Amino acid sequence: MAFGDPQARLDALADISQRLLERCRERGATQAEVSCSEEAGLSVNVRMGEVETVESTRDRGIAVTVYFGQRKGSASTADLRESSLDATVEQACAIARYTEDDPAAGLADPALMATDLRDFDTWHPWAIDADRAVDLALACENAGRESDKRVENSDGASVGSHESLGVYANSHGFIGRERTTQHTLGCALIAGRGDDMQRDGWYSVGLAAEDLEAASAIGRKAAERAVSRLSPRQVPTGEYAVLYSAEIARSLIGHLVGAVSGGALYRRASFLLDSVGTKLFPEWFQIYERPFLRRGLRSSAFDAEGVATRESALVENGVLQRYVLGSYSARKLGLQTTGNAGGMHNVHVAANAGDFESLVKTMGRGLLVTELMGQGVNTITGDYSRGAAGFWVENGQPQYPVDGITIAGNLRGMFEAIEAVGSDVDPRSHVRTGSILVGRMTVAGE
User: Fold this and answer.
1) What is the full DSSP assignment across 150-188?
2) Of 29, 231, 250, 431, which one is least surrounded by beta carbons within 10 A?
3) Last residue of a domain, one of 208, 228, 248
4) How far apart are CA 432 and CA 258, in angstroms?
5) CA 10 to chain CA mean position, Å
6) CA angle, 46 then 50 then 52, to 5°
7) What ranges in 324-410 are assigned the alpha helix state H?
8) Residues 79 and 123 placed together within one structural domain of the fold
9) Is residue 405 within 8 Å of 384, Cβ to Cβ?
């Protein structure tokens, strides 16, 4: 383990946070909060059977925020010497003294602080050294390169292992500790040659090493995906059903979350202003936040302000139930925080259909999207236009790869047109969704 005794390090960070809060009080701050973190990691990259990089990282950070009434100041340091900690507090106080009052500034309501600080089994250090990591990456790449003779090049394979410790404390008396690990293994391969080269890959993510897919399986899947994209065609411009594969479908949910998040709302930069209670999706559509999942990629008992998280619906029976707010954005909107300072925790999109193959059959004819390019999403209007690649589907079966196309619509209309969510959940993100079938979108091809 990079941290030796992680509990001892958490105790040390907690002690630092309490000392800093006391110094803030001594300097006249009416409220204060401190975030302490330490991270360590190992990452290796190989390409074409050779080691390209081996990196070992060790980082830490201390952030102090003080409030003098409704004037706020923040400062940070990575130096744990007492003189540096003192200077950080002084700097934060000096900044606060020269800022203007902000009616929305301040800590979250003390009554909302988390009290059930349970563990979610998120700490699984991987006893792997650089040599073993290199061997694993090479095995992954080799499995892919050897699985199909059409794979003639590689963008490389990588292994990463990271550990993170964090403490958040504030002058309400709240102190929360978290420790997490995350490990990754992935590979990107190039099939074909000349003008007919195609690149694709695969990767696996887990809080524990045993949750990762086997290196050989990842390599072979990367090769299979790259080869399947050879000799792509275009399709005639028109309106078709579009099936977003699971790893791509979560971007649609991300656009929803972004549009109902506090920052976009109080800046009036969202196409979903004043939409709570509005039916945005088909009646069967459901999205839940589940912060208490065992080994969830973003499980936590408290948010970035110490507010207790809770299981709740974001969308129920197709109707938007709430926004995604921290205390600052909530005050700007005249509402109460939803415990989402720092983002959402384990977003679950309920399935109403079967596996991926059954969704393709259900679609019958249309476009299966496996890659998106560009950033053509306007969060103010909801207009959506992205470069895409994937496969053309006829009679419920993928027929040939396609690329060089654009898919377009408006997110509000796309949400309404969702016909199915598959059970093929991609577990590599805190947004857990299966493939999503949108009944009709504009596809610009030939």
Assistant:
1) TEEEEEEEEEEEEEEEEEEEETTS-EEEEEEEEEEEEEE
2) 231
3) 228
4) 16
5) 25
6) 50
7) 327-333, 356-363
8) yes
9) no
DSSP state of 209: G
For residue 237, report the phi and psi dihedrals to the nearest 5 degrees.
-60, 135
- Provide the pairing of β-strand 347-349 with 431-432: parallel
| 82-97 vs 6-26: helix crossing angle, rounded to 10 | 50
pTM to 2 decimal places: 0.94
In the numeric block, the tokens 């340091």 are attached to: 77
CA triple 401-389-379, angle to 5 deg:
160
Phi, psi of 86 (to 5 degrees): -60, -45
DSSP state at residue 382: -
Q: 323 is in which domain, residue-wise?
A: 232-446
352's enclosing H/E stretch is: none
pLDDT by residue for the chain (446 residues), tens only, comes to: 577 789 999 999 999 999 999 999 999 999 999 999 999 999 999 999 999 999 999 999 999 999 999 999 999 999 999 999 999 999 999 999 999 999 999 999 999 999 999 999 999 999 999 999 999 999 999 999 999 999 999 999 999 999 999 999 999 999 999 999 999 999 999 999 988 899 999 999 999 999 999 999 999 999 999 999 999 999 999 999 999 999 999 999 999 999 999 999 999 999 999 999 999 999 999 999 999 999 999 999 999 999 999 999 999 999 999 999 999 999 999 999 999 999 999 999 999 999 999 999 999 999 999 999 988 899 999 999 999 999 999 999 999 999 999 999 999 999 999 999 999 999 999 999 999 999 999 999 88
**Cβ neighbour number for residue 84 with a 10 Å cutoff:** 12
Q: How many CA atoms lie within 13 A of 294 on its CB side?
A: 2
Domain co-membership, 94 together with 59: yes
How many Å apart are CA 395 and CA 299, to the nearest integer? 41
- What whole-number distance in Å separates Cα of residue 37 and Cα of residue 62? 7
Same domain? 185 vs 261: no
